[in-house]
Amino acid sequence: MFALVAGEGALPGVLIRRLEAEGRPFRYCEMEGHSSDARGDRPMMRFRVETLGSFINDLRSVGVDQICFAGRVARPRLDPSAIDSATMPLVPRMMAALQAGDDGALRLVLGFFEEAGIEIIAAHDLAPDLIPDAGAHGIVKPSDQDKRDADRGVEIIGAMAKVDVGQACIVAGGQALAIEAAGGTDWMMRSLMVRPKGVGHKALTNDNAWDDPIGLAADWLTGTGEGAPGVDRVRDPDLPQGGLLVKAAKPGQDRRVDMPTIGPLTFLRAAEVGLRGVVIEAGGVMVLEFDRCVEIADRQNLLFWVRE
């Protein structure tokens, strides 16, 4: 029996459709606090990190011998009062995992499943077509500067791996403009945007400013009012313009559960923040909706390069 642990993002839905198309039965699982839109009305096995031992036992009791982890899951906080008896023997190693970097934590947690006889299956083994062929896809081809920036980006990601931080960076003219951290790739790209000089939040100086405080708050939160977050933001003029998003698996990373992923939204954001293109490691990054990504890259005049 197969089990899928679904996190956030589009990847779980892709894998579910693949499993269903193949007629392959599976158990759908989620970690508490990380619901997925892919669930639909499917029965669910939900677990917490404090009940991981019981969750593994439950999987074995229904015959699960293979499991795939797909989608984003934030590092959980451990509530000692919620640890159950089946999980208690795992606690010393769990505490060590929570103190380790992402890769170290993943390896320790995966070990619990493997010790119970459950094989870890990578998402790209279920859907090999998520790994695109090497080469430049679309109308824009890499320039000599792009090649140098891509080399530099891979070098930076390799350095980041030594401290177990991130799988992406933005490089322009050999300079690192941003590196990926806990906020993720989208946050990293948005960090290039600033409010133009002289444009700030609208001052609330008139007598009627607070007549409709609920409406004022709604405008602020939704970005529809003057001075709302995200309004009038432009590429930081103090940074080099253009640049490449470079994304790759970290050297030594366990690719069964934490392979980097991009999709159409990656290209839309890259265009929004003024990047020249997106470069990914051949065989090391999954691409969701590949044809759509090429279409967006061409329409936005972006480089889409799967670099060997």
Automatic annotation (TrEMBL):
Please state what the protein is called.
Phosphatidate cytidylyltransferase
Organism, as annotated: Litoreibacter ponti
Residue ranges of every copy of the LpxI C-terminal domain listed in the record: 135-192, 239-304
Cite the Pfam families for this sequence.
LpxI_C (PF06230), LpxI_N (PF17930)
Annotated InterPro entries:
LpxI, LpxI_C, LpxI_C_sf, LpxI_N
Judging by the UniProt lineage, the source's domain of life is Bacteria
| Residue intervals of the LpxI N-terminal domain | 3-130
